[in-house]
Amino acid sequence: MKTTYHILATLALATTLSACDSYLDIKPKGERIPETASDYRSMLSHSNIQKIGETYPVYLTDDCYLPDSAVNTATPGLNTITPYLKRLYTFDKEVFGDGEDDTFWFSAYSRIFTNNVVVREVMKATEGTNEEKNAIRGEALVNRALDYLYLVNGYAKHYNEATADNDPGVPLLLDADISQTNLTRASVKGVYQQILADLNEAEKALPAEISTNAFHASKDAARGLLARTLLYMGNYADALKAANEVIARHDTLLNLTQYAVVKPNGMIGRTNVPDADANPESIFIKYAPYIFGVSSKVFPSDTLLNMYPGNDMRMALFMPDKYRGTQLTHAIWAPFVRANTAISTPEMFLIAAECEARVGNAQRAMALINKLRDHRIHTNTHVVLTDKDSVLNFVLAERRRELAFNGFTRLIDLKRLNLDPRFATTVKHVGANETWVLMPNDPKYVLPIPQKVMRFNANSMTQNER
User: Fold this and answer.
1) One Pfam family for this entry, by name (predicted)?
2) In the chain, which end has fewer C-beta atoms inside a 10 angstrom radius, N or C?
């Protein structure tokens, strides 16, 4: 190959979080020249490429509770939690202090760099069929789109058609050149347009079915991510169409009522619920940076806990009120399941149901939600609602129950729903002597761009106001 790319010896991640010497703090090291289709496939198979997003933004939400001090559990309280997480939870203006790196930003752009290499070069590979190369390229496009969707929802205001052209998004890097300086932030609309373009191109290139496992992308991975993207944009008709296309081929739900707590005094292996790689709901798998997400790192808020009926297995399996045999004063979030934060069947049900409630058939919306609840709640009684507003409220509540602590989905939902006064939420975190309040559409919903990045682009990028 004429172009040589310096990639980690492991073939995938090209980043270091020290010795900052470029706008993204990406510093390739080691040297490996990909030549064959298999080489490029190996790049996409690396464990770092098969992770996505971050979990720390959950501390901004109403799903999260931290006591002043935690007793009889490894789950931290405000007195022991990592400083930047405490700043998030208490809605401080500053988040990361000196010496604290924002792994969300740096890891995402590292993956984007690797996927850009694949997108640009895999079709020149010396071995492999065009079909194989197209599938690899299509997967890299889906990966890139997914990272940009997380980035723009973390570091920018939520998509609003009226302002998206002018709202600053994130730098849009589409090649493998990491030496660029004086970067600018693409608009929120520009980032979303690139995501849509990547997904539409990927769908044409990807196979209908995958021959290996759901860590690799199929057409339905692209369609599922398209459904999510369109939902976030408020394009409910097209989001419904995309979600329905996926559901037509992926309608299997895991019946949680058939699973149990098998090690009451343990944490890892506490239940027999399968990890994402063995879960039939998985359409396209990505793990959180820590594969168990925020397991044992956070307490569900009382508001969240009170949303589950007593016979709901999501609470029984994933929110224990005992830690290694010791009774707790408050349940913790501790599923210790390697959960999928990419594309799954339940999310497609929820997207289709929400869109039906908004622009389609309210009866079908309830049918989808009742089917999901049949697989989550012992002896579930079907809920009957006909008024569209009531149906929509019920669907949104079920979405919150089902996707609790899945990446930072709740934060994105708060941001998008806050644009509608009917659903605007004031988040309150209550301490022993102080209550911290985050009003709807508060600038603190948007994460700050890392100071390292701002220093290298001081004349071309604007920081988020918080």
Assistant:
1) SusD-like_3
2) N
List CB contacts of 226: < 8 A, sequence separation 6 or more: 196, 199, 200, 203, 242
One-letter identity of residue 415? K
pLDDT band at 377 (very low <50, low <70, confident <90, very high): very high
The CA dihedral of 240, 246, 249, 255, to the nearest 10 degrees, is -90
Contact of 307 with 317, CB cutoff 8 Å: no
CATH number at residue 63: 1.25.40.390
* Domain membership of residue 151 as a residue range: 37-255+340-456
Q: Tally Cβ neighbours within 10 Å of residue 384.
A: 8
The answer as to whether 91 is a domain residue is: yes
Q: What is the pLDDT of residues 173-212, one digit of tens each?
A: 999 876 777 899 999 999 999 999 999 999 999 999 987 8
3-class DSSP state of 11 = coil
Strand 326-327 to strand 322-323: parallel, antiparallel, or no bridges (unpaired)?
antiparallel
438 Rama sector, left if φ>0, alpha if ψ -120 to 50, beta otherwise = beta
Closest CA to 11 of 32, 25, 27, 28: 32
